[in-house]
Amino acid sequence: MTVTYSSKVANATFLSFHRLLLRWKGSIYKLLYREFILFALLYTVLSLVYRLVLSEQQKRLFEKLSIYCDRYAEQIPVTFVLGFYVTLVVNRWWNQFLNLPWTDRLMFLISSCVQGKDEYGRLLRRTLVRYVNLTSLLIFRSVSTAVCKRFPTIDHVVEAGFMTPEERKVFENVRSPHLKYWIPVVWFSNLASKARQEGRIQDSIDLQNILNEMNLFRTWCATLFGYDWVGVPLVYTQVVTLAVYTFFFACLIGRQFLDPTQGHPGHDLDLYIPIFTLLQFFFYCGWLKLVLFSVFLGPTPFVVPQLNLDRRSSAGRRSP
């Protein structure tokens, strides 16, 4: 889940900006520290074996293997493959956020266009809004773990007041192999048309505006459902993961500091700690981790709180 840090950036000064980079919650350090420690540990073990365990003849063989791995590891197109994959996933993630269905505009139209100060008019507006919320809830149950845990079954949806027992029977009688989020949209359209016939909606233009807004709302829901249904092809994920991990497996051997007395090109210094290789691991694997989390977590988690509904006017009565 995204961690908000905008206020920290706005209040950061030249001397305190490092505090933002060192934040632990939601940071790349928290996400990657296990893999980073494992890579550093494996590198250290190989370095100690090369320096303390191998014989002179075995060291010469290891040096040849290290130079070979270092030479051909650069032929793995990690930057190109990972950059293409990151662009694909980030664009997909942002489009999911842009297509989250917001109910505000539709509720404003219902409140202003559906007339009636009596009990029936209040129930009519409330039922229309409830159908909108029910549509969004059915979508969020399929794409958000938080909402699915809050409403694991239709029983919980009925208990919370989003659906009446009579509506549940109609909902369950509709056979469909896919998500039935569109059923409340049909109920909404029928009820809005009935309200126009009864004069609760005084103008056909108002009815058209409400239905057009509902169609837009349904389009957002369908787009979100499509993103959840059709994911990033597994081949892309496999190619990128294999490329990154193969590259750093080769780096474990190819980036070892070799004996400077042997005169190998590029091995004039023996620094023990591969600073730039560790930074490269941090950047590439951090990039990979972030996009994998975006792929498997799906859209932005949308938390639905516990609602305190008036059962007498919503779930306890048949919809008008």
Describe the model.
The protein is 68% helix and 0% strand. With 320 residues, it is an all-alpha fold. The protein has two domains: 32-97 and 233-293, no CATH class; 101-229, no CATH class. Mean pLDDT is 83; it is low at 299-320.
Largest sheet: none
Approximate helicity band: 55-70%
For the secondary structure, the number of strands is 0
Percent in strands: under 5%
Pick out the low-confidence regions: 299-320
Q: Measured on Cα atoms, how large is the radius of gyration?
A: 29 Å
Name the overall outline.
Answer: elongated
In N-to-C order, the SSE pattern is: HHHHHHHHHHHHHH
Provide the number of structural domains.
Answer: 2
Report, as a whole number of angstroms, the end-to-end distance: 40 Å
Arithmetic mean pLDDT: 83
Class based on secondary structure composition and strand pairing: mainly alpha
Q: Provide a count of the helices.
A: 14
Topology (elements, then pairings):
Blueprint: H1 6-11, H2 17-21, H3 28-53, H4 56-73, H5 78-98, H6 104-113, H7 119-143, H8 145-150, H9 154-159, H10 165-173, H11 183-197, H12 204-229, H13 234-254, H14 275-297
Concise structural overview:
It is a multi-pass membrane protein. This protein has 14 helices and no strands.
Give the tags.
single chain; 320 residues; mainly alpha; 2 domains; 14 helices; 68% helix; 0% strand; elongated; disordered C terminus
